[in-house]
């Protein structure tokens, strides 16, 4: 692991790091905020998964999480959204696929299967790296994310309920297997058999019996992707049928941007902190 940069903030340290990833077969970059409480021992971890076109840096620069994370004693880990670099298969003219659009799946189709293994990266490789190199209490982990990252957070929590104490999302893609901006990506990564897509679709995972105690989701009513891409009512319906607790907050006038995310970031941090103990 290499340290790209570190900077003191609110008594803690905001760092950016890189490493050679076995899962993604390339160098990967990620960000970690270590709160001041880590001087006295391991602290709980909140994973933040970013959305389409983002890197580790978007939430780090615009998410406004450090002040309260420092107050609450939360470590914030921000992975990248896809493999990157020379030789990585990509569609440079398609912002909904390839670089910046890994969708937190393990691809099975050539030529993407070698590198696009973001599910394994986020659930296996990067946690092992965090545990080995940072003062993280890995018995206390929670997860959140935005849009594509909200989809990632929800599906990862449903498939690993023993790992995470809580899960929330900002404007998540509720049913990626039928949304116009995600269905083509799932087909390219996972093949044409739609049965394989179910493992990465929140509503279908719930339909297939996966469970998590409760979710918190915020969604802006002026989000341009609301009707065609996000469709939180599908998540609401799936949770209701399964008896999963869902607090879905429709936030009047907010869009899909980090202005929306940063407005409600404090609420999510406090919600997770209460469940992390």
TrEMBL record:
EC code: 3.1.2.12
GO cellular component, one term: cytosol
Superkingdom field: Bacteria
Active site: 147 (charge relay system), 223 (charge relay system), 256 (charge relay system)
Gene Ontology molecular function, alphabetical: carboxylic ester hydrolase activity; S-formylglutathione hydrolase activity
Gene3D superfamilies on file: alpha/beta hydrolase (3.40.50.1820)
Entry's Gene Ontology BP terms: formaldehyde catabolic process
Keyword Methyltransferase among UniProt keywords: no
InterPro entries per UniProt: AB_hydrolase_fold, Esterase-like, S-formylglutathione_hydrol
Entry keywords, A to Z: Hydrolase, Serine esterase
Enzymatic reactions: S-formylglutathione + H2O = formate + glutathione + H(+)
Cited function: Serine hydrolase involved in the detoxification of formaldehyde.
Similarity comment text for this entry: Belongs to the esterase D family.
Protein name: S-formylglutathione hydrolase
Provenance organism: Aminobacter aganoensis
Source lineage: Bacteria, Pseudomonadati, Pseudomonadota, Alphaproteobacteria, Hyphomicrobiales
